[in-house]
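One thing: mind reviewing this one?
=====
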Amino acid sequence: MKAKKTLNMITQRAVEEGIAMEIGKTSRQYFDACSIIEMNEQDMKELGIMKNTNVRVKSESGEVVVKAVVGRQTCYPGLCHIRQGVWANQVVPPRTQSTGAPQYSGFPVTVEPVPNERLKTALELVQGAVGMWKGDQ
């Protein structure tokens, strides 16, 4: 069993995320819809990740802890998805390739199980990104 694995990240939209966004980004529905990473079952097994286990996702731009679930859409080995939003934004590279939009898809991330680490709320992540979060001190 490996402790870490590099995967190709694609952020995505989902119906559950859209509905939850209308309810509010600080709602439980938004948290449940967006604080997940969809992975291939084979990759999860290789990493020793059980369904609904917390994992750390790291990119060149940052890191975030999310809950691993088996891909609800087609998710080939080596590929993973986080729904677009606050959790995905922690790892999305700022490069735009002159398009004006960040690179939301096709960037490498490492994934490792961290079953004892908690997921942060959208508010904690946003406040942490701008240096306002004081709760982890």
User: Anything to note?
Assistant: The helical segments are 15-23, 28-34, 41-47, 86-89, 122-129. Residues 59 and 109 are 5 Å apart (CA to CA).
